[in-house]
Amino acid sequence: MSAPTSDASATRDLARADVELRLPSSGAYASVLRTTTAALAARLDFTIDDIEDLRIAVGEAGALVLPAADPDADITARFHLGDRTMTIEVSTEAIDDPEPDLESFAWQVLDTLADDASVDSGGGTFRVRFTMTSQLAGEAPAQSAGAEL
To answer: Rounded to two decimals, what is the model's pTM?
Structure first.
């Protein structure tokens, strides 16, 4: 039940997260998750538009994970930071292993915004993982107007 992942994201999965955030499984903490994500993206020089897309994407990841959480379970967000790229994993304990809803609005928005996204449920964990890259990544330095002549 997961979208394909790249070899690069699979490698990051094995590495320890650069930042980990643990929150109670309550919608009241969604703003903490979005704000933390935005602050980390700003440190990576993401554009304002990229930061807003990340805030939306992590909010939708939370919207997918929150209903799957067991009572009294925490929501854990792991942030893997790269060169103008960020992979975020939002997960919770889910003993019932609920089926991911790939037709939901939250998944459709997340899948559209992210470069790579996956969701899986099994082994008592419900997990959403996605990667986003800044629009500036890979761009050549700006040339002066005179250089175009």
So the answer is: 0.80
